[in-house]
From TrEMBL:
<keyword id="KW-0812">Transmembrane</keyword>
<feature type="transmembrane region" description="Helical">
    <location>
        <begin position="376"/>
        <end position="396"/>
    </location>
</feature>
<dbReference type="InterPro" id="IPR036259">
    <property type="entry name" value="MFS_trans_sf"/>
</dbReference>
<feature type="transmembrane region" description="Helical">
    <location>
        <begin position="80"/>
        <end position="103"/>
    </location>
</feature>
<dbReference type="InterPro" id="IPR010290">
    <property type="entry name" value="TM_effector"/>
</dbReference>
<feature type="transmembrane region" description="Helical">
    <location>
        <begin position="256"/>
        <end position="276"/>
    </location>
</feature>
<keyword id="KW-0472">Membrane</keyword>
<feature type="transmembrane region" description="Helical">
    <location>
        <begin position="47"/>
        <end position="68"/>
    </location>
</feature>
<feature type="transmembrane region" description="Helical">
    <location>
        <begin position="21"/>
        <end position="41"/>
    </location>
</feature>
<keyword id="KW-0813">Transport</keyword>
<keyword id="KW-1003">Cell membrane</keyword>
<feature type="transmembrane region" description="Helical">
    <location>
        <begin position="172"/>
        <end position="192"/>
    </location>
</feature>
<feature type="transmembrane region" description="Helical">
    <location>
        <begin position="213"/>
        <end position="236"/>
    </location>
</feature>
<feature type="transmembrane region" description="Helical">
    <location>
        <begin position="283"/>
        <end position="301"/>
    </location>
</feature>
<keyword id="KW-1133">Transmembrane helix</keyword>
<protein>
    <submittedName>
        <fullName>MFS transporter</fullName>
    </submittedName>
</protein>
<feature type="transmembrane region" description="Helical">
    <location>
        <begin position="345"/>
        <end position="364"/>
    </location>
</feature>
Amino acid sequence: MRTPDMFRALRHHNYRLWAGADFLSVAGTWMQVLGVNWLLLSITGSATSLGFGLFLQSLPTLLLAFAGGCLADRLPARPLLLTTQFLHGLLAAVLAVIALTGAGSVWPIYAVALLGGVVSALDGPALGRFGAEVVGPEDLPNALALGSVISSGGRILGMGAAGVLIPVAGTGTLFVLNALSFAVIIVAICRMRAGEMHPLPRAAAEKVGIAAGLRYIGGTRWLLILLGLALVLGALGRNYQVTMAAMSDGPLGAGAAGYGLLSVVFAAGAVVGGLYAASRRDLTFPLLFAAAALTGVGQVLSGVMPGLLSFALMLLPIAAGAVVLDTAVSTRAQLGTAPEMRGRVLAAQSMVGAASGAVGGPLLGVLCDTLGPRTALVGAGVACSVVTVVAAAALARTLGHRLPAVLSGGEKAGESSALSPACR
């Protein structure tokens, strides 16, 4: 039976193993996230402790992601990932011991969070590179789109399971389940068929290192434009956890229940966006900028929605557009850059994501507190829309085309030139 085109990446035996293991791992990760937050809150009674834990977990990505990219471009992915997944599972088991023996201090939990961030920073680029080797370039856009659906579904399952298990079995059980999810990933990697992999060339000696990666990225002008767009839109348009909470608690008067509803709607929109991206054969620059425009304009409109229902309805296209945008950026960045630089390009993307969260979350929080949530949403949406137009114009100039040609998608040369060395 022929696999529907929307799910064409699932034709690969190795990707089916990878997708199933990834779904369980994402669910386990979100169970652990909620478990750690609840454990810290139960020990300290302070929300500040949660923020500090997140900071410790995110900091290594900003500092070490490029080192992880160098490892990914130089070392074989399979043994590297087997090692890092074992370490993730071991850290989850340590958290389980801390929780089950009765934690009296937050510092062991902070230490595990920091070490987990270090491992994630080192293996993030390798995971992305290995994922490309599982399916090959032809089905990579579809695999990335399905990956966003899997992540959204795993997040919903993990958060829902955590909500049920914490009062019944305690946080230690969540950490045990997360440790087991990494065992599933290890088994999946070991069962993959080596003959069906699509190995990427590893970096030669003269192209190894952080400096070589920075020179390459700095000389790839179209990539810099995409990373800049992702940074601004990630900071001002992706931190909806902050603005949804502020709107629920403030103008919408919906409280915690409304915030929970909006979170579910946002996750549903992300699934819709992932399925739409998966249905597309090519994730082109025109589609990328259309999604960016949709999220920016949608954010402006969301700021003036009068009630909870209308605001929730605006979140659907915003979340869908955000997933399409992120998938298109990742696809263009991976397929349009040299394979031996893939790990360091992925590292740059992860650093942009971490920076946008670290900057955008506090910035939007301050804007919501000082200007009000509605004004913050409208202002941030306008800024995102302006940056989208500027980025589109800059990309058109870089690729040697007029702006309408790039945005209309009428010239295939605009896409092919983005993949050629001439525009680097």
